[in-house]
Amino acid sequence: MPSPSRSSSIPAVALDEQALIQECDVKFTRRGGPGGQHRNKVSSAVVLKHRPTGVTAEASERRSQAENRSVAVARLRVELAIQVREEVEAFVVPLVRQYGGSQFRVAIGNEVYPVILADVLNRTLANEGDVATAAEFWCTTASQIVRFLRQEPQALATVNQAREKAGRHRLK
Fold this sequence. Notes:
Elements: H1 17-22, E1 24-32, E2 41-50, E3 56-59, H2 65-83, H3 89-92, H4 96-99, H5 113-125, H6 132-137, H7 142-150, H8 153-165
Antiparallel strand pairs: 1-2, 2-3
Helix pairs in contact: 2-5, 5-8
Domain Prokaryotic-type class I peptide chain release factors: 23-84
InterPro entries: Pep_chain_release_fac_I, Pep_chain_release_fac_I_sf, Prokaryotic/Mito_RF
GO molecular function: translation release factor activity
């Protein structure tokens, strides 16, 4: 798991788009665009590599380089939430009232989704994959936390690895 070597006190997953891009190597590449495999080869694909952690994300499905950059940033935030353990509690405490509760629902496209995912993973992985601590903090049930983790298969796989290492059964 990559560890951050950054000077900023704000976790990378909580940075705004411009600040996060400043910490990245940005590469524009040619990929097949809409219209078939040999048509519309355009340089609109965007690959971001977060320099402090080495985490990468890319997007090439849109025609616009700017749109692909925004999609790549969103994907990078999710990857950072899954792969990098940084303290995000100060950023999520104000969100508990709005997003916590019995119906723990946060849409993947929501700008705070990666920060909440990072917090849920931090709390779960700190307790050998036990989701109860995260559920208690977010004022919801363990099953709601598992449902939330299922939105990102890689996040659920990370929790299941920690659970297996601790001798617990896998979450489904």
